[in-house]
Amino acid sequence: METPWLVVGLGNPGPGYAATRHNVGQMVLDELASRGGLTFKTHKTNATVAEGRLTPGGPRLVLAKPNTYMNVSGGPVSQLLRFYSLDPSRLIVVHDELDIPFDTIRLKHGGGHGGHNGVRDVIAATGSGDFTRVRVGVGRPPGSSAAADHVLKAFSAAERKNLPILVSDAADAVEEITSAGLTAAQNRFHAR
């Protein structure tokens, strides 16, 4: 049986958070599911999951959105890896990134959490940083605004105009990683 990729979109649960910067990872998963005609369903792990292929003959994906708050995302991710008998090297975490300008995507494998509490919790719960990250730039807050407040706010009107393109690009990056590998995806998206 083909080993699937586990693609996790980090965010906070509930409609109040759905349109915030912190939930851009889950927006990317919604885009991927819509491309493959996949539907999210409740799963025995603490997550909603959509499984399938985005294209006929394409790689098998397990798209997952933890039902927990961002800072405790690790538990569901760890449960999902165990449930599907996957190694962290088959995990792709899609998350917001303050240190990258809005409208920019950066891809990397391994490393630390870079101050991102959701990624920190995934590393702690899985015991490994050996997974791929699709880091979706949301930019730093203007002036002296607190980063925590910035990520919990909705995108600005100007950002919302470009948000569909950013989400689509991040979904393209996930597809490229799972079909052609990380290096090919980095060459395509980091050159921009």
CATH topology: Rossmann fold
- Secondary structure: number of strands: 7
Order of helix and strand elements from N to C terminus: EHEEEHEEHEHHH
Strand content: 15-25%
CATH superfamily: Peptidyl-tRNA hydrolase
Distance between the termini: 36 Å
Radius of gyration over alpha carbons?
15 Å
- Major sheet: 7 strands, mixed
Shape assignment:
globular
Percentage of residues assigned to helices: 25-40%
In total, the number of domains comes to: 1
Q: Structural class, from helix and strand content?
A: alpha/beta
Mean pLDDT: 95
CATH class: Alpha Beta
Pick out the low-confidence regions.
none
Name of the CATH architecture:
3-Layer(aba) Sandwich
Strand order of the largest sheet: 2-3-4-1-5-7-6
Number of helices, where a helix is a run of at least 4 consecutive DSSP H or I residues: 6
